[in-house]
Write a structure and sequence with these properties.
Shape: globular
Number of strands: 0
Helix content: over 70%
Order of helices and strands: HHHHHHHHHHHHHHHHHHHHH
Oligomer: single chain
Structural class: mainly alpha
C-alpha cells in the first residue's frame, strides 16, 4: 500500500512542475525502473511499437477531426435556436437549451472541449441579452460540455477500451442511456435552482406556434444525421468504430458544404487543431502504457487491490471509496491523465469485485466528467472562462458549476445501484 501511495504522490509532484503529462509519465516509469529491475530501457521500444500499432487508436484523430469540423460548420447555432423553442418554457428557461444542445452536439463530436466551446460561443450572447444569471449560464455550459465524453462517439471511451481491451461497440451502446439520464438530471438541478430563486423563464419567441416549432426541428437533423452515420454503421456491422469515424467526417464535410462553410481556411483550422489535440492524447497514452508496464512489474496494482480488499468494505463500499478517490484526484489531474494513470491499478480490483468491465467504463467516464469541472484544473472550466463574453473572475465559473457536480454525484448513485442503465442497451444490441 505504501508503494501505491508513493506512486500517486509522485504523479502529483511531477505534474505539479507543469511538465507535459505524457513526458511526466515516462519520467516516472524510468525513475521507478532505476530503483527496481532496470529492464525498461530494453522494453520501451517494444512497448511503444505495440501501443501505437493499434488499429482502434486510429479512431482518435478521426473523431477529433470530426468534432473540429462540426464546431466550425455552423450547425450548432441553428440547432440551439431550434431546441430553445422547445425547452424554454421550463423553469430555468433557455439554460435547458444549453444542456440539450450540448447533449445532441456530443452525439456527433465526441469531445467535451469542442462541445463546451461551440455551445458556449453560440448560447452566451442570447442568454446574457435576456438577463440570465451569468454563473448559471457558465456552469451549465461547462457541465453540459462534459456530455461530449459520455454520449457516443467518445474519444475517452475509445481510450478506456484500448487500455482495458473492452469492446468499443458495447461501450458506445452503454453510454447512450446514461448520457440521456445525466442530461435530464442536470436539467432537474436547473429547475430546482430556478424554483428556489424564483427566476422567470424566457424564450426566444413566446408567440411561436406549434407548427413553427415542429418546422424548426429540421435544424436538429444535421447532428442526428452524423450520429446515425457513425453509430448506425457500427451497429449494423457496416463499419468498425475507426471506419465509422471516417464516415462521420465525410458526413460532416457534406453538412459544411451545404451550410457554405466548407472553405480551405476552415479545413486548415480544423486539421491544425485536430493534430495538436491528437498529439497530446497519444503522448499521454504511450506514457501511460510505459508506466503501466513498470507498475505491473513492481506489483503495485496487486498490492493496491489487496489493500482495498483487506479493508472489507464490501462491493458497494469499495466502489464509493473509488468515487471519493477519483473526486479528489480529479481536482489535480486532467481527465485523460486521470484515466490512464490509474486504470492499471483500479481495473483489476473492480473486476475482482465482480463488476462488469463495460459498466465500469461508463462509471469511470462519469468520474472523468467530474474531473473536467472540478477546480483547480478542470479543463472545461478554463474553456468556458476563455470564451465568456462578460469578463470576470474564474470563481464565477466555479460557483456556477457546483450544482452540476451534485447532479453527477446523484447520477453516480443511480448508476451504481441500477447498473442496467448502462448494461441494458449493450445486452440488447449484442
Amino acid at each position: 500500500m505504501s508503494a501505491s501511495l508513493l506512486y500517486f504522490g509522485a504523479i502529483l509532484v511531477v505534474l505539479g512542475t507543469s511538465i507535459y503529462v505524457g513526458a511526466a509519465l515516462v519520467l516516472l516509469a524510468f525513475g521507478a525502473d532505476l530503483t527496481s529491475l532496470g529492464i525498461l530501457p530494453n522494453m520501451a521500444g517494444n512497448i511503444l511499437w505495440s501501443t501505437m500499432n493499434s488499429y482502434i487508436l486510429v479512431a482518435i484523430p478521426l473523431f477529433v477531426l470530426l468534432g473540429e469540423i462540426l464546431s466550425l460548420s455552423g450547425v450548432a447555432d441553428r440547432m440551439y435556436r431550434a431546441l430553445a423553442h422547445w425547452v424554454g418554457w421550463l423553469p430555468g428557461g433557455l439554460v435547458h437549451a444549453n444542456i440539450a444542445t450540448c447533449a445532441l452536439f456530443a452525439a456527433a463530436s465526441g469531445s467535451s472541449v469542442a462541445t463546451a466551446a461551440t455551445i458556449g460561443t453560440v448560447a452566451q450572447p442570447t442568454l446574457l441579452r435576456l438577463g440570465y444569471d451569468q454563473r448559471l449560464v457558465l456552469g451549465s455550459i461547462a457541465a453540459g460540455g462534459t456530455l461530449g465524453i459520455l454520449i457516443p462517439p467518445s474519444i475517452n471511451i475509445i481510450v478506456y477500451g484500448a487500455l482495458t481491451n473492452t469492446s468499443i461497440g458495447r461501450l458506445f451502446a452503454a453510454g447512450i442511456l446514461p448520457g440521456i439520464v445525466l442530461a435530464m438530471t442536470m436539467s432537474l438541478i436547473v429547475i430546482a435552482i430556478s424554483l428556489i430563486k424564483g427566476s422567470k423563464a424566457e424564450t426566444l419567441d413566446a408567440q411561436m406556434t406549434m407548427a413553427q416549432r415542429i418546422r424548426s426541428l429540421i435544424h436538429v437533423l444535421p447532428v442526428l444525421f452524423v450520429f446515425t452515420v457513425v453509430m448506425g454503421s457500427i451497429y449494423l456491422g457496416i463499419a468498425t468504430p475507426t471506419e465509422a469515424a471516417a464516415m462521420g467526417i465525410m458526413a460532416a464535410l457534406i453538412l459544411a458544404a451545404i451550410n457554405g462553410t466548407l472553405t480551405i481556411p476552415m479545413l486548415h483550422t480544423a486539421f491544425e487543431s485536430a493534430v495538436k489535440t491528437t498529439a497530446m492524447i497519444l503522448l499521454v497514452i504511450v506514457g501511460a502504457f510505459i508506466l503501466n508496464f513498470q507498475l505491473s512489474v513492481t506489483g503495485i496494482p496487486q498490492a493496491f487491490a489487496n489493500w482495498i480488499v483487506s479493508l472489507d468494505l464490501g462491493k458497494y463500499g469499495t466502489i464509493w471509496m473509488l468515487v471519493v478517490f477519483y473526486a479528489i484526484l480529479g481536482c489535480f489531474l486532467e481527465a485523460v491523465a486521470m484515466l490512464v494513470t490509474t486504470i492499471a491499478v483500479v481495473y483489476p480490483l473492480v473486476i475482482k469485485l465482480g463488476f462488469d468491465p463495460v459498466w465500469f467504463g461508463i462509471f469511470i467516464i462519469v468520474l472523468m466528467e467530474m474531473a473536467l469541472i472540478t477546480p483547480p484544473v478542470g479543463l472545461n472550466l478554463f474553456v468556458v472562462q476563455n470564451i465568456r463574453i462578460r469578463q470576470g473572475s474564474i470563481l464565477d465559473v466555479y460557483r456556477g458549476v457546483a450544482p452540476f457536480v451534485l447532479a453527477m454525484v446523484i447520477f453516480l448513485a443511480i448508476l451504481i445501484y441500477v447498473p442496467e442503465i448502462a448494461l441494458w442497451l449493450p445486452s440488447l444490441l449484442f
